């Protein structure tokens, strides 16, 4: 897996307010960065800039490899069975066959035929993570990935991130909850 993500002197302005500037970091295969800071300092905005959903006010974001975003909403069709909703996105990535393993990885295979709208908060979060897994993208952009997860699910999440890094993937993680991310660069806002 060949992956990269770099911020070079990136600035972020929202609603006319400068949130951060001069932000620099570079991640290569197996690397992770932990984005922390008080509410409203721009953690989600930074992740959105990395995803290409929000333009940087200054500086440049460069990288190598597809990026997968875990944000507040998973954009899974609430009326579809979970597996079908995940397959919708996986097919676009040409990876429909990856859905089954992704569901198993987040311990949701028993709920594959349950409509997304019936999932609990934590199950929905795990479903969103299954979408990231199924994408096969080497660069993971995770905004508050542990929100709504119980202790055991949070540990599964940490292990999946570690496995991903072990295969040369990258994780950029914004969180206000403690999450084990060994040897991660800290990006403090
Ligand atoms: N679409 C928008 N237009 C204007 N301002 C915005 C917009 N979205 C977010 N902001 C503002 O940008 C600032 C940073 O928001 P952001 O969600 O990036 O912070 P955060 O660090 O992730 O916060 P939290 O820890 O509460 O999730 C906030 O003051 C917010 O009100």
UniProtKB/TrEMBL annotation:
What are the residue boundaries of the ABC transporter domain, all occurrences included? 5-187
| Alphabetical UniProt keywords | ATP-binding, Cytochrome c-type biogenesis, Membrane, Nucleotide-binding, Translocase, Transport
Task: Please give the biological process terms from Gene Ontology that the record holds.
Answer: cytochrome complex assembly
GO-annotated molecular function: ATP binding; ATP hydrolysis activity; transmembrane transporter activity
Q: Carries keyword Cell cycle?
A: no
> What protein am I looking at?
Heme ABC exporter ATP-binding protein CcmA
């Amino acid at each position: 897996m060949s992956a990269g993500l770099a911020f070079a002197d990136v600035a972020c302005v929202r609603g006319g307010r400068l949130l951060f500037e001069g932000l620099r970091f570079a991640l290569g295969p197996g690397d992770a960065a932990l984005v922390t800071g008080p509410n409203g300092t721009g953690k989600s905005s930074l992740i959105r800039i990395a995803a290409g959903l929000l333009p940087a006010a200054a500086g440049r974001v460069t990288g190598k490899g597809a990026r997968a975003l875990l944000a507040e909403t998973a954009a899974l069709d609430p009326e579809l069975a979970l597996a079908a909703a995940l397959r919708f996105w996986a097919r676009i990535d040409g990876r429909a066959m990856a859905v089954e393993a992704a569901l198993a990885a987040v311990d949701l295979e028993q709920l594959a035929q349950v409509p997304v709208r019936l999932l609990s908060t934590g199950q929905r979060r795990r479903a969103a993570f299954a979408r990231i897994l199924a994408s096969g993208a080497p660069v993971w952009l995770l905004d508050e990935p542990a929100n709504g997860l119980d202790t055991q699910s949070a540990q599964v999440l940490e292990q999946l991130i570690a496995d991903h890094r072990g295969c040369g993937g990258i994780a950029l993680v914004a969180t206000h909850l403690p999450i084990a991310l060994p040897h991660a660069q800290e990006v403090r806002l």
